[in-house]
Amino acid sequence: MSYIRIRVPEHISSVLSHIDVPGKKVPTNDLHISLLYISEKANSPEELKHISRVVHRVLYNRFNTTVTFSKVTCFEKSTDGYPIIIKFENAELQQINKDLKESFTHEGISFDNTYPDFNLHITLSYYNSAIEDFQIPEMSFNAIGVQLIENKKEVDWFYLKQ
């Protein structure tokens, strides 16, 4: 599986891992914000270089952005159950998602568009039923970089300007 993400910093992940949510929890060291899923299949080294160049062009001269959140909710049921998530809004990250999709389309790079309406979130766990929304103390962090992940390993890292 290939995707582009922002890793949640360790000090925030540690706090999030202690939120009382039901189901199978996402490992603390894997909490992240997905910006774009590319594919389920493995990409060749040449494809990854092409993807990396396009991501670099999209992110060039982008500034870091503050991610702020305070609400736990869930998405509709998926193959793994109901994703229990922290949902939030951020105009800059929404624009990055849109620009990545446009650039990938222009470059002939296929990507997963199963959910065309992009919803920023951090998945905390997967559960067999929906939950009631609840508030948590407001938290925030600076998203300073973006990772390209292939088969659970970082392939490239892109810094956002300070």
What does this entry look like structurally?
The chain has helices at 10-16, 45-59, 91-107, and strands spanning 2-7, 24-25, 32-39, 65-74, 82-87, 121-127, 134-143, 145-150, 153-159. By secondary structure, the chain is α+β, with helices and mostly antiparallel strands. It has one domain (2-159): Cyclic phosphodiesterase (Cyclic Phosphodiesterase, Chain: A). The strands form two sheets. It has a five-stranded antiparallel beta sheet with strand order 2-6-5-4-7, with no helix packed on it. A four-stranded antiparallel beta sheet has the order 3-1-8-9, with helices on one face. A hairpin with a 2-residue loop joins strand 8 (145-150) and strand 9 (153-159). The longest helix is centred in the middle third of the chain and has 17 residues, at 91-107. The protein is globular, with a radius of gyration of 16 Å. The relative contact order is 0.28.
Helix content class: 10-25%
The helix count comes to 3
Q: Please state the oligomeric state of the protein chains shown.
A: single chain
In spatial order, strands of the major sheet run 2-6-5-4-7
Please report which band the strand proportion falls in: under 5%, 5-15%, 15-25%, 25-35%, 35-45% or over 45%. Answer: 35-45%
Outline: globular
Can you tell me the CATH class? Alpha Beta
CATH topology: Cyclic Phosphodiesterase, Chain: A
Largest sheet: 5 strands, antiparallel
Question: How many separate domains?
Answer: 1
Average predicted confidence as pLDDT: 95
H and E order: EHEEHEEHEEEE
- Which class of secondary structure composition applies to the elements? alpha+beta
Total number of beta strands: 9
Radius of gyration: 16 Å
Span between termini: 30 Å
